[in-house]
């Protein structure tokens, strides 16, 4: 999308606004499948948590993607989007056995990440095949909040607990059809990824009836011009060779699965916000926009850096601004950032807003969540309406507490 398109969409649908470019999602999906074209059986399962709008799920389903889900609600969204149950993998953490059983009844692939649930599920449902999520004890990821494969992580069953897994499998007679790992997000060093893959290969040797190995994801995308990113082409070449060798030694052609989220949708997303006020203080020039961390929490939560462009003045001279929101506490998108000169009423564009942005939005300060638009084949399609006051109060219950009358006080 270009500046003209984005300004036109902002004019039509207002701000703040999320816009997603279907062409970029498609090209990222094709790039990943091309990198692993020499794997006989490849499966891409899009991580729904990154961006769960049903129109996005339908787009990815049309490309051939399955879905990686973490809740029964995401499973049901996938089914509504037309995905087949067998093309959905469900990888929860800390949920009840009842939810897992409900998902199993829907026909999705179950992925279990703790010994207690593994034993309970295997005892009750030995005929339902399950995948097991291991924790490889590999520290990887761009932030401690998104590094999930290290020794202190709550995710997965420790690789050192493999004997416990095997005992449960033997005692229950359950079938394990997949092994899974996910070390973290924003992984740059592919050697770390390949090292963790070797741990997964070793774990897989303990199970004789596997159908697939799931290597998670966590590919880093660029956040600004010239930024470093995961070299998926190099990873594809090296991991493909190693995976095919493993399948040969295993004696069976297995499916290689990934579950990318950010890689597929991050760069496709644009968040548009209008400048309400330009405020000069003794040391800083603030550009205050009609949004806040209630709509885009990643900078405050992860320290994430989103490139910000002034669509209304793309050729203006650059000045330093701190871009802040309207939330009633510290609410900073960027500090002392070089941006083309900003005036009140300008439209700012936050790039890389496709992943973990709208899905983490809230109604904090009783603000409405923004609308979402899909740019598809040169046309803007509204795929979620902007919220209204009715949406805020829809599930609230008025218990009709009578207001007490205050006694009238008169002056003596």
TrEMBL record:
SUPFAM superfamilies xrefs: Alanine racemase C-terminal domain-like, PLP-binding barrel
Keywords carried by this UniProt record: Amino-acid biosynthesis, Decarboxylase, Lyase, Lysine biosynthesis, Pyridoxal phosphate
Pathway in which the depicted protein is active: Amino-acid biosynthesis; L-lysine biosynthesis via DAP pathway; L-lysine from DL-2,6-diaminopimelate: step 1/1
GO biological process annotation, one example: lysine biosynthetic process via diaminopimelate
Sites where the protein binds pyridoxal 5'-phosphate: 218, 356
Domain Orn/DAP/Arg decarboxylase 2 C-terminal: start-end pairs: 18-354
One Pfam family, short name: Orn_Arg_deC_N
List of catalytic residues: 328
Enzymatic reactions: meso-2,6-diaminopimelate + H(+) = L-lysine + CO2
Binding site for substrate: 298, 302, 329, 356
UniProt keyword Lyase present: yes
Cofactor(s) listed in the protein's UniProt record: pyridoxal 5'-phosphate
First-level EC class: lyase
A Gene Ontology molecular function term of the record: diaminopimelate decarboxylase activity
Function: Specifically catalyzes the decarboxylation of meso-diaminopimelate (meso-DAP) to L-lysine.
Name the UniProt record assigns to this protein: Diaminopimelate decarboxylase
Native source species: Imtechella halotolerans K1
